Amino acid sequence: MNHRSFTHIAYLFSVVIVLFLVASVPCIAQNGTALSGTVLDMEGKPIAGFAIGLLQGALISMTDEKGAFTFTNIPAGPVQIAIPTQPSKENEEPMFDFEADDEILSIKIRGITLYQDTRPPFGGIEFGVKSSSHIKDVAVTVRPRTRIRAKVIFKDGKPLTNASVSLIVEGNGRATGGATTDAEGYFVSYFDKNEVPAHYTVSVKYKGLSAKSELFLLEEGARYDDLVLTLDGNVPPAAPQKESLPKVLDKLSDGLTPPEKPTLTETDRSVPTNKGQVNIQEVEVKPRVTGAEPTKPVRQMRPPWEKDAWAVNPANGHGYKKIRCDSLDEARDRAAAQGAFLLAINDEAEQKWISGFFGNHLYWIGLSDAENEGEWVWQNGDPLTYTNWGPKHSFPRSPLSQEKKDSAVMTFANGQWHAVGPGDVLWRMTKMAILEKADVLDGK
Description:
28 strands, Immunoglobulin-like, 5-stranded mixed beta sheet, 4 helices
């Protein structure tokens, strides 16, 4: 919902898959790396004259009469499709903005359909392309975003135009922020999938006046565009205009006596400087009031480690996800809840892919010798065919004996592994884990 702060967002329950494809179909040489496909509506019909974009390079393409689009000369590497704002006038240009009126439901590529719940740049489907390749027949299904469109009017019926208001939305939680009305008095606020269906009320405040809607039901995909918010008063009187400095100087030059310097009183205080004492009269400093800030409605955003996305390793087809956790037990529980296991690394190539994608940090991995001392096994049952143990004394010396170190973490030192147990420094410091899921592409 775009009326919430961009520092928070509720955890989404549906899985967004990040697919890394190694494109192999050669492209026409003069076009370089390319991507082409069709934009479809919810009924599978092509959408003509629709703007679609790639975040990488801020590339935008308009679909033709058959809903087809093409991007050429794409930089090799990760690519993410996004929906920019659509031009409302003939001479307007589409642009990337949080206020886009549509969103991607799914992307079908190479026979695999991936469903998207979080919009870029804070989530969404991402895939990779190789240089001089062409990914064809990508089907992008889009849908209108769930929203309300409200008109703010004064008690006498006049619209509040081109003004900033304070906004409060209550229903599935409570959110405050700001909105700006247009030339007709309207503002728009969007809702995410996890925030509907729910009953809501919307309130606005403007220069001491306020308005609140009746309770209404907002369902997924709905457009509640007939909301009218009537302020409990009429247009406030305009503030008196202050004379500009040139006019004041003109009056002074016409012989007017400048105001006398105020006499210092006992409330005066002295401030020491390099040149002695300077008397400064105490004055009341009032905060500058400018009304509601003309910012876009604020949104809640989850931290990067909480993005509900699986990254697919093209070498084995497994999905991987980084999560935030307070303990090893929590990491295992969250893995089990998603039908996954803690990470198992089976060869050097997989180790390099993990480090390259997630970076070298402190992560819990699914390695343990709790059952039989010295016999390390992976949580998912894979045999231990590869190891990347780091030097025993590369970190602060552990107070535990080797027999009490039954778990393992992957570290920021080239992704090396270290055995740990309760009481170790690394045990306390490790607050992230990597999950692995073999059947992520099957939607299980």
